Amino acid sequence: MLRGLYTAAAGMLAEQRRHQIVTNNVANLNTPGFKQSNAVLRSFPEMLIHAVGGNAVPAARPIGRLNTAVIAEENLHVWAQGDLEETGRPLDFALVSDIPVDGVRFGAYGIGVDETGARVFQPQAFFAVRNADGELRLTRNGRFVAGTGGRLTTPEGFEVLGRDGRPIVLPPGADVSQWRVTPDGRFVDASGAPVTGPDGVELALGLYVAEDPHALVREGDGVFRWEGDAALLRLLDGPEPGVEVRQGYLERSNVDAAQAMVELVAALRAFEANQKVVQAYDRSLEKAVNEVGRV
Amino acid sequence: MNGSMIIAAVGMRASQQALEVAAHNIANADTVGFKRREASFEDVLAQVYEQPPGFRLPGRLTPLGLPYGWGANVHQLALDFRPGPVEETGRELDFALEGDGLFEVSVAAQPQPLWTRAGAFEWAVDPDDPQRKVLTTPDGAYVLAEGGERISVPAASGLRVDAEGRLYEVMPDGTENEFGRLSVVRVVRPDLLVNVGDNRFTLAEGAAEADAVDRANVWTADGGVPIRVRQRALEQSNVRPADEMVDMLAAQRAFQLQARAFATAEQMLGLAVSMRG
């Protein structure tokens, strides 16, 4: 068959995937702690093309490389800080994460360039939660609720972990509205003394910093799964420059609605252009099949 | 295209639910003792388009696989328990609570504990003794005193309740008899309470009363603001119409954008379908 037919079909599929990812961003315009994701398209695989026939010596002369398809390769998250929205609720927390790295100045999207010109991604801070299987998950959505038994959980039921790696349990009968949370995530009461849980441990939110934010995979329900090197995910044990917990606030979704609209239309029109290419090939093939060699 | 259409539809449904929560709050902007509810979004469980090892190409930043989401869902949080403004009414049977307290009431047909913040009470004839009257809510639920008893006074007397909930029957000649104490509970975990209508709350399913409310530490200041009763005053709704309007606008605009995403997905589907003839 004509080579370009499959390329055009691959183009349609890639634009469809891109459209799907942008639509998910738009659906999460109001989800606290949501990070926008951008589909990255890549032209792939490559074929080495030879000219065959004619008077050429050798018989097949290489012309060059041709990409025969495009794929939606990966789904990159945009780590721009979301706006803070004041809710006044004592168990709503927002993380402001702007971690400095020596020698690098980061832009608003968490991307910077170091002295050698290499691209550097800014480390990002997260709250720590635990799923039903006991596995660590990370989240930026700090809307927590106090459930039965005084356990602090997300609305889906993921237990919030403390600095000691165990789920946070609020002391029974304690009036949470009188507590404050310090910028490094420790709970203190109205007089400034640290609050201790039922087992005597000082209550503090568990905060992790991911040195390579791209090793995080979104699982849904507001949480990310860490798939990178264990050494690149560290638990904070005290104040960290650039990481601040704000009580009574939520971090809003960082989805850019205008950009999303433009991408939806761009995906649609690229899809349409590829569809026209398929139709053009179809007409060519129709001629080849039906008219060439007709007697 | 189909994936986009489903995601857009799920997003529209979530935006619509958020709109309904805001509308319910606005409808109750004037309801005495009403506590507003909040909608909160969460993104839906994500899946992954698997990718074979050959896709690990130079310049790639994320692990293998193309994750994608399925939109957003709304989770409704229990209650925003911040106090509403207190208005002096001068009416003998209007009560407002200061601090995180709830009056306890009972309805014959419902065995579970019922609490309310709306203190606009009335007298009804005591079913056990027509010479006496009992304190009820406007729709007939009995207001309880400590011990679970109804509050009953002789038909001719008035009622005074002091700041710490003690009940006094006031005789026509002005003398007072203390005869009990108002049953008030302190709310410890508002996330464990649910609204059952008629401005009343009860325990969420599976929640233990000891986790949600405190009966012992009500009138004293241990662990927070002491609870006080104010007679001749009513607490208004804690809905702030301006905030609700902003939430409504945000939900409306999100709905609009999601509908636009749906429209482009539908166009793409049309292009694919009409590709041949």
Give me a quick take on this structure.
The complex is a heterodimer of chains A (295) and B (277). Chain A has 2 helices and 23 strands.
What are the defining features of this structure?
heterodimer, A: 295 residues, 2 domains, 7-stranded antiparallel beta sheet, 23 strands, B: 277 residues, alpha+beta, Flagellar_basal_body_rod_CS (chain A)
Please tell me about this protein's structure.
The complex is a heterodimer of chains A (295) and B (277). By secondary structure, chain A is of the alpha+beta class. Chain A folds into two domains: 3-77 and 256-290, no CATH class; 84-251, no CATH class. Helix content of chain A is 20%, strand content 32%. Chain A has two helices and 23 strands. Chain A has helices spanning 3-27, 257-290, and strands at 37-43, 46-52, 60-67, 70-77, 84-86, 92-97, 105-106, 111-113, 119-121, 124-130, 136-139, 142-143, 145-146, 152-153, 159-160, 180-181, 187-188, 207-210, 216-220, 223-226, 233-235, 243-247, 249-251. In chain A, strands 10, 11, 15, 18, 19, 20 and 21 form a seven-stranded antiparallel beta sheet that branches. Chain A has a three-stranded antiparallel beta sheet with strand order 12-6-22, with no helix packed on it. In chain A, strands 7-8-9 form a three-stranded antiparallel beta sheet, with no helix packed on it. In chain A, helix 1 (3-27) packs antiparallel against helix 2 (257-290). Chain A starts with a helix and ends in a 5-residue tail after the last helix. In chain A, 40% of the residues are buried. With 277 residues, chain B is an alpha+beta fold. Chain B has two domains: 2-78 and 256-273, no CATH class; 86-235, no CATH class. Helices cover 23% and strands 32% of the residues of chain B. Chain B is built from three helices and 21 strands. Chain B has helices at residues 2-27, 209-212, 241-273; strands spanning 38-43, 47-49, 66-68, 72-77, 86-88, 95-98, 101-107, 110-116, 122-125, 132-136, 142-143, 152-154, 158-161, 166-170, 176-181, 184-187, 193-195, 200-203, 213-214, 228-231, 233-235. In chain B, the strands form seven sheets. In chain B, strands 7, 8, 11, 16, 17, 18 and 19 form a seven-stranded antiparallel beta sheet that branches. In chain B, a hairpin with a 2-residue loop joins strand 7 (101-107) and strand 8. In chain B, helix 1 packs antiparallel against helix 3 (241-273). Chain B is elongated, with a radius of gyration of 27 Å. Chain B starts with a helix and ends with a helix. The mean pLDDT of chain B is 89. Classes of the chains: A alpha+beta (295), B alpha+beta (277).
